[in-house]
Fold this protein.
Amino acid sequence: MMEQRFARAMEAFCLPAGCRVTVALSGGMDSVVLLYLLKELPGRNFILQAAHVNHGLREAAGRDQQFCRELCEKWQIPLQIFQGDAAAYAKSHGMSIEEGARALRYGFLDPLAGENSFVATAHHREDQLETFFINLYRGSGSRGLSGIKPRRGNYLRPLLELEKQAITAFAQEHRLAYVTDETNGDTAYLRNFLRHEVLPLLQSREEGNFAAGLAAAMQNLRAEDEALDFWAEQISADDAETLAALPDAVLKRVLDRMNGASLDRLHFHEIAALIRRRPSSGQLQIAGDRFFRLEYGQCKFTLLPGEPILPVQPDIPTEWEGLQFLIRSEEINSPFTHFMVDCDKIKGNLIFRRKKPGDLFRPMGKGGTSRLQKRLKNDRIPRSRRDALWVLADEQDRVIWAEGYGAAEGFGCDENTKRVYCIKIGGK
């Protein structure tokens, strides 16, 4: 019976013939049963191997590692062993021991879940229920409360719909040897507290079947989460008017996709509030130099450019991040030439740099404000382009030329100009 349920679960994955499946083998009962079921799977058309991660947390870790080695030798299954220090990893990354061990483990396993390669873990139905309460404790939404999916990318969980009781009975029936993690009974760990105290108490109620009811509720949440994902995938617009009309659950998914990573709750609500106020422009810092920007009704996530200062000499190219900057000196006989400056009006050294607050600039032959920032805003230049604007400044930090505008008043060409600097910024 259990073999049939397992075979159906594996069939649902539709694995390509000749692929590799690696079992995350701890040596505990669940992972040993998983490895055995895969070894004995009728019609198996994939390469089977195992991987054991020694987290360096327990005195018995060496025993577990040796058990896995001997088991795989007995069953003639290739085994990879990884060793790490989960406690040190957790401390250096500001995590709990549980979080650090998990991150370290998946750091080893992720490379094994690549192209035409899969990793199988031994999560079962009770793990699902524990995960529900852990994510409830963390304040998760439907995605977290829907629990573990049978497949996530190239990670497979073929035991997910099987009960712990059935797995235990199977191990006993087939006399499978395994090791027991002595920390499994330590209720100082949240998962163990849920496993040994909370879930048995809820399951002890006579009315109904708590585990089955919760499993059904999680399936419903998963279906709703998938529907919200589908809705969000249909939204390709980035204008504030469209995004402001979306429910929070859909807007969060759209913004996460635009950002390339999940936003935390605080930043999401700040961005949602900004979008729904619908100002013409606005900006919120996400982290470091990463910002959310609203530019004339368009939403985007962007990085602020750095602050390069590039000394330049006439006729000698200067390079930075794939761009070439060049001031070329030329003799001219004609009068005014656009986007050039009169080199005889410039004293001292020159630098290319980004625009910065307080820069004064009035284009040659034009009136209006002398503040460069205000001019750019009046000309409706998007903020991302404003911050990336290049200027040429002298050694007194005066702007003598601005990208897109040309020479500043007092440095441009006139009827008396004999020599000019021709400004060039672009690819090589």
